[in-house]
Design brief:
mainly beta, five-stranded mixed beta sheet
């Protein structure tokens, strides 16, 4: 059996973060990694955000995504470094098996490039495979002189960097790995720490120290192994050594060492200058060490009384632990620490006059998310990355100042005559030489003034995380509209349990957009439609609400030979007589406004037909402009106050709305510019830029002159058409009142990030309206200055028949940018206007034949995405595909010399959106290009400024999609397949449909819809995160009652310990250890019902379990009550285990509940469902797995599997049993078979024969495997077993009794294996999409298959689909070609990454047989010529490969 693997949803759990100048010299970035995903953000301050109700505005600090990249390997560690002579930072990335890559950002291509590779895997096997378990941690020298990476428990690697001091090093010292960096990274070497200090056994942590002449590495290690149960005889086993690294001579003497540190020391933090030294975090203590000062330690709880002999001071009332903590320095004497429970503490180092730490001041500041990584963005901002909850951006401020205690003051006070010179205000005043300021730096001695700082933290932004994906369940959306045809594959939503403790939540995700239908009309024959607003109403004619809302007033429908005008108010009515032209089909309708500065004087409607233009105000015709230029009009594009009109023979007409002199009315003026007519213009678009990126290489501009007539000095001016307030052309919306300060529960913000309602309102209100222009820079990244708005500029985008794209200024249409062969889809687009000419020589005509093979450009659009349209994107429909390019500012010195005429300082990079929109092969008859162009004359790219608070582009066609972007800067593309083909689409704002939209489906039905407000669409998938504020464990969905059953737990301190008394009865011993004792925690489990209507817990359904009782499994099982009763009834079954320590045997219970319907309580309609307990009894072992087989209950109790029958008296009666392996963690059944998974002994296939009442072992995997999850792979009549394990692999097993290697069927055969790179903890199966949503043609290739989907602990979602051998062989050849044919970030090898990983070497080679869909999907992002070349190498065509990928995409587009 062969299969296809692909990651559908990127990982969201952030593991590493750092702050550096990676993409720009001027602006700092936040770089985060989640598994194999690398994402870059930038902090944008004080963005003006409109609330959801559009009544108020608020200024917020937000993180804006710059870019994201997928790597072929999981990032283990990440550090920044700035090489000598470089203006930007580079990043060191470490990967498994001691691989290290140095990457940097290339501004010319807007991509990451690899500058250095280092590989130490061969050295790991010298001492055996056990040493490979070490995480390759990186640390860098503060002076950027070298870096260090841990290889094994006793080996480290040193990477020297070329500095100004080492510039005289000979070329012999330059290794092969630095060929691309010209000597930035010198040759690396290794250090065996056992040779440095024989006591080194295990390195725990290491850091470079501040303030040393040479790089000095401090290493925290353990000399003798011990643990908590052995500290009575062996304690204080940790030591430190500091080695000075002479990288040129490769010498490393020990300059400082100290032993007998507490055994539980975990982390090392180097204290910055001028204090220096090191801070060591142990689990129960904190110690400051300095080479020239005596050590100072503090006990954090009472555990240190018996665990260490190191002298520690005690602070009353303090009881915390520092295991799993993260810390970062806010200043040289203050650091913020996050504990494993999410608490934020600020630790101040109280320093005396000799800059020696004499005391610690620890203060709790807030309660926040469970943190995995932490970094300081800039002064005042802190980022907390988390794998268990939403990552948070915090702003901290100094709240107050506190007087330090007398004891601390006495420690630090000394006579002035004995004090060193400090950099306090008094010393600064007494300093005669200004050099003292440089020597001593700024004031860090808080003790000198007797004061300490107190901080407050405020949540500014959050990054959503749906991981770790624990359990999952498919359910039916509660609010799905009835108008949609029921589809079992798409009418589903996925509920994932994620988080832990206070970060526990339910993540409700959907793969597609599911709009809410308000009403539907039957209007056949409509080709296109538009919504426009009515005229400006006076204050007497409009209410306050109407004047603020600005509802759409008219709906214009175009038919083949007529136009229908509808008035949209509280009711939609047809307009009989109006100023619109209704006797012919309409090409385009849009509003155009007459303005006086920012004030809108008149609002008109422009209607474009094939032979003229009509200007209408309300229903009154103002002007009719007949255009008799020898060819009918086919396209139009409007950007107030200009319009571009394109005729069938390629003529372009510029239309301008201008105010008549002395009157308050406007008129249209047309001009036919002299553009070259050969090659013919096929598509046009008019773009209004407010981002500031569209700037030519000249400095100034004369908008009224032609560039051809200017002198050389004039050519250096910027050639843009600026708005003038006197011309009344600036389209500004009415100013909205500024928003008041938003009041949100601060505790909830710190715990869970921004709440769902506030998060939605903030995200959804970053409208892409071009009516609020702002100042921006390259990737924009300046703070917006609304008071000094930048003038908007207008640009015409033209596509010619030879597939060239040209950009002209408006209104004078001067060429400033040319893209040759645009439809080819190059990865990077640069200006080629310097070599461009419109000559039609014989050689030019001969090359026209080569364009016939490239796909045609049907439509082009330039739109500003993001907050205030600050990110220009170029969209184009090319053939059956969608090309998306992002504009970024770039101009090299060579480009400035090359271009003699004005040209834009822009480049475009291709955005790999990963969406295929090819029609199914055979579902339509092929026609020539001219006929296809006529069918595609209706615009499919529809811009909307505010639908449900979002702005973007809707893509009509057989496979409609939404393109969205908010202030977060990430482009999201969501399909909407729930209603099939969409022929046309418009936004619609009405009193009965606020911020909604209209569209026609393939059946000619007009649907009026709104977006459901409970979902968030600014994420890879539409999602809703419901906090439960406890740890969720299991969830099941009852199809009959449409309700969820949820098992959760809360951690409670354990103040009593159970033990077995003399008479064999269970007794308890109370613990009373004082206030500073850290009590262990136990989980208190409970079961309750959860409603999918409002996502709230159903009242009065909570069932609490006993103390020390853990729920180990839950499932809904169909059971039959007697042998003579053939019908089944679904019951909710739970398995539990009593965990009371090593001295008491573990027992468990089986609990069976029935979900019943009752009369709901008054005012509480959700209380119609209750839980009725049917059975609860204790068994002689833990109940670890449950499932149903043939109407019976199959339960794993201890090391046996039992089959139980539910009798009529609601009791379980044993039917059969079989012995199993060590510990069964998972079981599920199909027909009369059951597949069980063991925690160490892989999987076993069981069979229950009802006729003989026997349960027997059919087959098993004889090799060891630590199983995480299991599921089936179904391909027609073939079946395989999919297993995920602890080493992040998935393996496919099959049962084949006829194979020789199966030993007569007693052994399961491995048929495929694959390294996923993430722990898969949950799986589910869905039927593939049976038919094409656009043409209803059956999907014969995968009609009898099922797609198996999974969730990982990193927050990713993926799929595995069985494929035929023919498709597998074809795509495997393509996969091998891509591995060697394209460059991979950080030099990682995809084939090596996907090879199955086994810590224990077996005598079996990897089976593979699973395609890497992530790698194959990169084929869709290649250019037209690159696809053809790769397809030619493997002996096929690019269309065949794209059809194969589209069939897979179409079959798996579920949920």
């Amino acid at each position: 059996m062969y299969a296809w693997y692909r990651q559908l949803h990127p990982p969201t759990g952030i593991e590493n973060c750092l702050h550096c100048n990676f993409t720009s010299e001027k602006y700092e970035d936040l770089v985060v990694s989640a598994a194999s995903q690398l994402t870059i953000y930038r902090l944008r301050k004080k963005l003006e955000i409109v609330t959801k109700d559009e009544k108020e505005k608020v200024r917020k600090d937000k993180l804006e995504q710059i870019g994201t990249w997928q790597l072929h390997g999981n990032i283990q560690s990440m550090k920044k470094v700035r090489f000598a002579g470089c203006a930007k930072d580079s990043i060191l990335l470490s990967f498994k098996y001691a691989k290290l890559s140095v990457i940097e950002f290339d501004e010319s291509t807007f991509e990451i490039k690899t500058s250095s590779l280092h590989y130490f895997e061969e050295d790991l096997s010298e001492n055996g495979s056990v040493s490979r378990n070490t995480i390759p941690k990186i640390c860098t020298d503060p002076e950027n002189r070298c870096a260090c990476m841990q290889l094994t428990s006793t080996n480290i690697a040193i990477l020297p960097f070329r500095t100004r001091e080492t510039a005289v090093v000979t070329d012999d010292s330059v290794g092969l790995s630095n060929a691309g960096t010209r000597g930035h990274v010198l040759s690396s070497y290794e250090i065996n720490l056992k040779e440095v200090d024989p006591q080194v056994q295990i390195v725990k942590d290491m850091k470079f120290l501040h303030g040393y002449y040479e790089p000095t590495l401090l290493i925290l290690f353990e000399s003798l192994r011990t643990w908590a149960g052995r500290i009575a005889v062996r304690q204080d086993t940790c030591n430190i050594i500091a080695i000075s690294l002479n990288v040129s001579e490769k010498l490393h003497p020990v300059i400082w060492s100290l032993g007998s540190l507490p055994y539980d020391c975990k982390y090392v933090y180097a204290v910055p200058k001028p204090i220096g030294g090191v801070l060591i975090f142990a689990v129960s203590s904190m110690i400051y060490l300095n080479q020239s000062c005596p050590p100072h330690g503090m006990s954090l709880n009472s555990h240190t009384k018996n665990s260490t002999s190191f002298p520690l001071k005690i602070q009353d009332g303090l009881a915390i632990t520092l295991d799993l903590s993260k810390a970062v320095f806010l200043s040289p004497d203050r650091l913020v620490v996050t504990l494993k429970g999410g608490e934020l503490y600020v630790i101040s180092l109280v320093v005396d006059s000799m800059r020696s730490v004499r005391s610690f001041h620890i203060e709790k500041a807030a309660a926040s998310v469970l943190t995995t990584c932490i970094t300081l963005l800039e002064e005042g901002y802190l980022f907390l990355g988390s794998r268990l909850g939403n990552s948070l951006l915090l702003r901290y401020t100094e709240a107050a100042r506190m007087e330090i205690s007398r004891e601390e003051k006495a420690l630090t006070s000394e006579p002035a005559s004995k004090r060193k010179r400090l950099n306090t205000a008094a010393d600064w005043a007494a300093a005669d030489d200004a050099d003292d300021l440089e020597v001593y730096g700024r004031d860090i001695s808080t003790a000198s003034s007797g004061q300490l700082f107190s901080y407050t933290f405020e949540v500014c932004d959050s990054i959503l995380n749906i991981g770790p994906c624990g359990s999952s369940e498919l359910g039916e959306p509660a609010l799905l509209s009835e108008e949609f045809t029921p589809q079992k594959e798409s009418d589903l939503e996925l509920v994932i349990l994620s988080g832990k403790g206070k970060n526990g939540a339910l993540s409700v995700v959907q793969r597609t957009m599911k709009p809410q239908v308000v009403t539907t009309f039957q209007l056949p024959g409509c080709i296109d439609m538009w919504t426009v607003k009515g005229p400006i109403k006076s204050k007497d004619e409009s209410t306050d609400k109407e004047s603020k809302e600005e509802y759409h007033g008219f709906l214009v429908l175009s038919r083949e030979d007529s136009t229908l005008v509808l008035e949209t108010g509280r009711e939609i009515m047809e307009v009989e007589e109006s100023g619109f032209c209704t006797s012919q089909s309409t090409i385009y309708v849009c509003n155009m406004c007459l303005r006086d500065g920012n004030k809108v004087l008149r609002r008109y409607t422009i209607q474009v037909c094939s032979n003229g233009i009509w200007l209408v105000e309300g229903l009154k015709q103002i002007q009719h402009v007949p255009l008799d230029i020898g060819s009918p009009i086919v396209r139009c594009s409007v950007s107030d106050p200009y319009a571009l009109v394109l005729t069938e023979d390629g003529q372009v007409v510029v239309v301008t709305l201008q105010q008549e002199e002395g009157e308050n009315t406007g008129k249209l003026y047309c001009s036919n510019p002299s553009l070259p007519q050969v090659p013919q213009v096929d598509s046009i678009y008019l773009y209004r830029d407010t981002s500031g990126m569209f700037v030519t290489n000249a400095e100034e501009c004369d908008p009224n002159s032609s560039v051809m007539d200017q002198s050389i000095s004039e050519t250096n001016r910027s050639f843009v058409s600026k708005e003038k307030s006197t011309s009344s052309l600036k389209p500004m919306s009415e100013p909205e009142p500024m928003r008041k300060t938003m009041t949100v529960d601060e505790e909830d913000e710190l715990l869970y990030g921004i709440s769902e309602s506030s998060m939605f309102s903030e995200q959804s209100s970053f409208q892409m309206s071009s009516t609020m222009p702002t100042t921006s820079d390259t990737m924009n990244m300046k703070s917006s200055k609304q008071e000094n708005e930048k003038d908007a500029t207008y640009w015409a985008i033209l596509v010619r028949a030879n597939r060239n794209l040209e950009i002209y200024t408006v209104p004078n249409l001067t060429l400033v940018y040319v893209i040759k062969s645009f439809s080819v889809g190059h990865k990077l687009i640069v200006d080629s206007s310097s070599s461009h000419s419109f000559s039609t020589s014989d050689s030019e005509k001969q090359t026209e034949s080569r364009y016939e093979g490239s796909p045609p450009v049907w439509e082009v659009m330039m739109v500003g995405f993001g907050h205030e349209a600050s990110h220009p994107y170029l969209l184009a429909r090319v053939g059956d595909e969608l090309l998306i390019y992002e504009a970024f500012s770039y101009r090299s010195k060579s480009d400035a010399k090359k271009f003699k005429r004005p040209s834009l300082k822009l480049r475009f990079r291709k955005v790999d959106h990963g969406k295929l929109m090819r029609r199914m092969a055979g579902s339509y008859s092929p026609q020539d290009e001219k006929t296809a162009r006529k069918e595609d004359s209706v615009s499919k790219l529809r811009y909307f400024s505010n639908i449900g608070g979002y702005a973007g582009v809707f893509i009509c066609g057989p496979y409609p999609h939404w393109l969205l972007m908010t202030v977060r800067g990430a482009l999201r593309c969501h399909p909407m397949i729930v209603d099939g083909r969409v022929t046309c689409f418009v936004p619609f704002h009405n009193i009965n449909c606020p911020r909604g939209f209209l569209y026609f489906n393939g059946q000619g039905e007009l649907r009026i819809c709104v977006l459901p407000t409970h979902m968030l669409y600014d994420h890879p998938w539409p999602v809703r995160k419901v906090p439960v504020r406890c740890t969720p464990h299991f969830i099941n969905y009852s199809v009959e009652h449409k309700i969820y059953a949820l098992v959760t737990s809360v951690d409670e301190p354990c103040t009593r310990v159970p033990f077995m008394g003399p008479d064999g009865e269970r007794e308890y011993e109370s613990l009373d250890e004082g206030d500073r004792f850290i009590y262990p925690t136990i989980r208190k489990f409970s079961l309750e019902l959860f409603s999918p209507v409002d996502w709230q817990i159903v009242p009065n359904t909570r069932v609490d379990l006993d103390e020390f009782e853990h729920v180990t499994c839950m499932c809904i099982v169909p059971l039959q009550s007697t042998n003579f009763h053939s019908s089944h009834q679904n019951y909710l079954c739970l398995g539990t285990a009593n965990i009371m320590g090593e001295e008491m045997g573990t027992r468990g219970r089986i609990l069976i509940f029935e979900i019943i319907e009752v009369v709901p309580e008054p005012g509480q309609p959700l209380t119609k469902n209750k839980l009725k307990k049917i059975y609860a009894d204790e068994h002689k072992g833990p109940v670890t797995a449950l499932c149903g087989v043939s109407g019976y209950l199959l339960a794993a109790i201890g090391q046996k599997m039992f089959v139980w029958r539910l009798d009529d008296n609601n009791s379980l009666k044993g039917v059969a049993f079989v012995d199993t392996q060590i510990y069964t963690i998972n079981a599920f059944s199909f027909k009369e078979f059951a597949l069980i998974a063991d925690i160490q002994r892989s999987i076993t296939l069981l069979r229950y024969k009802d006729q003989y009442k026997t349960l027997s072992v059919v087959s098993r995997d004889v090799r060891t495997m630590d199983v995480y999850a299991t599921q089936l792979i179904i391909d027609g009549t073939s079946l395989a077993f999919l297993v995920s394990d602890r080493e992040k692999n998935v393996t496919l097993f099959v049962y084949n009794s006829e194979a020789v290697e199966s030993s007569g069927g007693t052994r399961l055969l491995r048929r495929a294996d694959f390294h996923v790179g993430a722990h898969i903890n949950t799986m589910w199966r869905v039927s593939t999409v049976a038919s094409d949503t656009a043409s209803n043609a059956p999907n014969e290739v995968y009609s009898k298959s099922q797609v198996t989907m999974f969730g990982t602990l990193d927050g990713a979602i993926g799929e595995i689909l069985p494929v035929s051998e023919k498709i597998y062989r074809r795509l495997l050849m393509l996969q091998n070609a891509i591995v060697s044919g394209i460059q991979h970030i950080a030099g990682l090898n995809p084939k090596s990454f996907r090879t199955v990983v086994r810590e224990q070497k077996s005598l079996q080679n990897p089976m593979r047989n699973i395609l890497d869909g992530d790698l194959l999907w990169k084929f869709t992002g290649l250019s037209f010529h690159e696809r053809q070349e790769l397809a030619r190498k493997i002996g096929t065509t690019a269309d065949q490969i794209l059809d194969d990928l589209m069939d897979i995409h179409r079959a798996t587009c579920v949920m």
